[in-house]
Design brief:
Layout (H helix, E strand, L loop, with lengths): L2 H9 L12 H33 L3 H14 L6 H14 L9 H22 L3 E2 L2 E2 L1 H11 L6 H24 L6 H30 L6 H27 L7 H27 L2 H4 L5 H5 L4 H9 L2 H8 L7 H14 L1 H20 L6 H15 L4
Antiparallel strand pairs: 1-2
Helix pairs in contact: 1-2, 2-3, 2-5, 3-7, 4-5, 4-9, 4-17, 5-7, 5-8, 5-9, 6-7, 8-9, 9-10, 9-13, 10-16, 13-15, 13-16, 16-17
């Protein structure tokens, strides 16, 4: 990894510099992330090659199924969770510790992420992810093309559930390969298990919100963001990384990472809410406006309803009929007019400021401090 060159660049960048298309923080972090992504992807590729081969020995069809799961793990993505985990580890361990012993643990988080994405896409009936058909849609299309018996859609959903389950098992297997003392690995595992439970809790609240949007509030939408996104995207990966370095729950660094992670994780989800309505599908890899079509009670849309005039609220409530393309565009305009978008942008900025303040309360490896400051900006002011 080109860590020495990138460390020097990072330390010359002021963390409070605003993020833009030509921002050096974004450029330097992207360069370092490429190195880290390469290491994570190589670890995943080596592990998954052996696992696919082993399953192919059971039956040729199992080999094809496992290969599909492998392809979804390796199909791009920003590798956000391994990146936060790396800097959580680096912030505690410093720059002299070798990466190889903890690399399987960092890669584990990408398998966990694939499990969550594949299941989430089934629950949301999403058609695309990362610019390609979701797992259940791709498998359904293969089923239909082969002329097999039964409902193709139902078959695709069932196989996608199994793909997610397999990724969860693979994650457990890969985590066990981290070269750590047994006691430390057990502590890492406890935090990892808590992250998985919180992810399920957040996903359940997300589904409940869609079924009962009238009872939702901004506070409850933020609670969903906290558990569905903040926990397993930023906060828990950071703490996971710290535990890889031997940091305990009562350490001051744990408290600082917790505060930073919650703030950046919530801001990450708030940005996701905005991108879900106003993002460019070519960049995000997902269609824009799905939340408006389904009436999903995100913080953005709940806030828009709270801030709306009576006339705006009537438009947001609609007629109960399915929302069409032109109506989605109009609803997006109404949300802006309520002032909700500006409020969400302020909430994002406030959380980033709070996250950086939390980092200032503890001693942490200086390169990691600057990197985490840059990641807070990049993760919350992204286009995809």
């Amino acid at each position: 990894m080109a860590s020495d060159r990138l460390t020097g660049n990072l330390l010359r960048v002021a963390p409070e510099q605003p993020v833009g298309d030509d921002d050096p923080i974004r450029a330097v972090l992207a360069a370092y992330t490429r190195d880290l992504v390469t290491a994570v992807d190589e670890t995943l590729t080596d592990f998954l090659t052996a696992e696919v081969d082993a399953l192919a020995e059971i039956d040729a069809a199992m080999g094809g199924f496992a290969a599909t799961a492998r392809d979804y793990v390796l199909a791009g993505g920003k590798r956000v969770r391994p990146t936060f985990a790396y800097w959580g580890w680096r912030g505690a361990a410093g720059g002299d510790e070798p990466l190889a012993p903890v690399l399987p643990a960092l890669a584990t988080l990408e398998l966990l992420h694939t499990f969550a994405l594949v299941h989430d896409d089934v629950m949301d009936a999403s058609a695309t992810r990362r610019g390609r058909p979701t797992a259940h849609m791709a498998v359904a299309a293969q089923h239909a093309a082969a002329g097999r018996n039964g409902d193709s859609g139902r078959f695709g959903e069932a196989v996608a559930v199994l793909i997610g389950d397999l990724c969860m098992v693979w994650a457990d297997q890969l985590l066990s390969r981290a070269a750590l003392p047994p006691g430390r690995l057990l502590a890492v595992r406890r935090g990892y298990d808590r992250m998985r439970v919180e992810t399920v809790a957040g996903q359940y609240l997300d589904i409940l919100g869609e079924a009962d949007p009238e009872s939702w509030s901004v506070d409850r939408a933020l609670r969903v963001a906290r558990y569905k996104t903040a926990s397993y995207t930023v906060q828990r990966p950071l703490l996971f990384g710290a535990s890889l370095a031997g940091v305990t729950d009562d350490d001051r660094l744990t408290a600082a990472y917790t505060a930073y992670g919650l703030c950046v994780g919530e801001a990450f989800q708030l940005r996701d809410d905005l991108l879900g309505v106003y993002g460019d599908p070519v960049t995000t890899g997902k269609p824009a406006g799905d939340d408006l079509r389904t009436g999903k009670p995100t913080a953005l849309l709940v806030l828009a309803r709270e801030m709306a005039t009576p006339a705006q609220l009537r438009e947001l409530d609609g007629t109960g009929d399915p929302v069409t393309g032109p109506q989605v565009a109009r609803l997006a305009e109404v949300v802006v007019d309520t002032g909700a978008v500006d409020r969400i942008e302020r909430m994002i900025d406030e959380r980033v400021d709070q996250a950086l303040a939390a980092l200032d309360t503890v001693a942490v490896d200086e390169t990691a401090r600057v990197a985490l400051a840059g990641l807070a900006a990049v993760a919350t002011h992204r286009r995809a």
